[in-house]
Amino acid sequence: MADGGLTAGVIGLGSMGLGAALSLARAGLPTLGLDLRAEAMEALSSAGGTPCRDPAGLAARADVVFVYVVNAAQTESVLFGDGGAVAAARPGTVFVLCATMAPLDAQSLCERLADAGMLAVDAPVSGGAARAETGQISMMAAGPQAAFDRAAPALEAIAETVFRLGEQPGAGARMKVINQLLAGVHIAAAAEALVLAASWGMDLAEVHRVIQSCAGNSWMFANRGTHVVEGDYAPRSAVDIFVKDLGIVTEAAAASGAPVPLSDTALSLFREASQQGLGRLDDAAVALLLAQRAGVTLPGAQAVEGEAQ
Question: What predicted TM-score, i.e. pTM, was given to this entire model?
Answer without folding.
Answer: 0.93
